[in-house]
Write a structure and sequence with these properties.
about 230 residues, alpha/beta, 5-stranded parallel sheet, 8 helices
Length: about 230
């Protein structure tokens, strides 16, 4: 079994050295880039399993680069963890809106970083061999990691895919934010309940052009429900 390939995009050599050493000891393969230009070259050579991306980079900021990666077909499904000195809630929500899967606030411990990387990698892997899930003309195939609406493939990030997969497998039941974090993100995920709202909005946005956004319903004071009923 090969080691997971991590692309670290960080302009501070001391942090690159510390992170590279910690991830190497944890059995992860690390490639290092000091800026977006170097990162693009490495992505063209080989797609990593995950990108560790510093928020403050020379030339192009990490947040702008994350948005760019999520727009490109080749890198759209790449898991991204943002390394940031910004601990403000609005900054964190801004990162999630850009498509970032998680964020780690500096200074951070190497153990925490490794735990978060492993948690995101686990969440990014679809469960093999499951039967497609279907509600009306909406079909989710976990084996091919595709979602189609009336035969048209939808563009959807990995977190929205897992969220939709869980909803479609458990229709007509109400789940609180805490329950969704536990079931979709995992018990050891280091994310806040507000994260659920961000990804619900992104899931609805992906479903909206095909008229399926109404399947994801808000139950006031309780949480969310997936239902074909009005």
């Amino acid at each position: 079994m090969t080691a997971n390939d991590i692309l670290l995009v960080e302009d501070e050599p001391a942090i690159r050295e510390m992170v590279g050493f910690a991830l190497g000891r944890a059995g992860l393969e690390v490639r290092e880039a000091a800026d977006v230009g170097q990162a693009q070259t490495m992505l063209a050579e080989r797609l990593p399993d995950l990108v560790l991306l510093d928020w403050m980079l020379p030339g192009v900021s990490g947040i702008d680069y994350a948005r760019r990666l999520k727009r490109e077909d080749y890198t759209r499904d790449l898991p991204i963890i943002m390394l940031t000195a910004r601990g403000d809630e609005n900054d964190k929500v801004g990162g999630l809106d850009a498509g970032v899967d998680d964020y780690v606030t500096k200074p951070f411990s190497p153990r925490e970083l490794v735990a978060r990387i492993r948690a995101v990698l686990r969440r990014a892997r679809p469960e093999p061999g499951e039967q497609p899930l279907e509600v009306g003309g909406l079909v989710l195939n976990s084996s091919s990691h595709r979602v189609t609406a009336d035969g048209t493939e939808l563009e959807m990030g990995p977190t929205e895919f897992r969220l939709l997969q869980f909803f479609m497998a458990h229709p007509e039941r109400v789940y609180s934010r805490e329950q969704l974090l536990d079931r979709v993100w995992g018990r050891n995920a280091y994310v806040e309940e507000r994260t659920v709202d961000v990804h619900i909005l992104r899931l609805r946005k992906a479903l909206n052009p095909y008229g399926y956004d109404g399947l994801v319903q808000t139950v006031r004071g309780a949480g969310y429900r997936f239902s074909a009923r009005n």
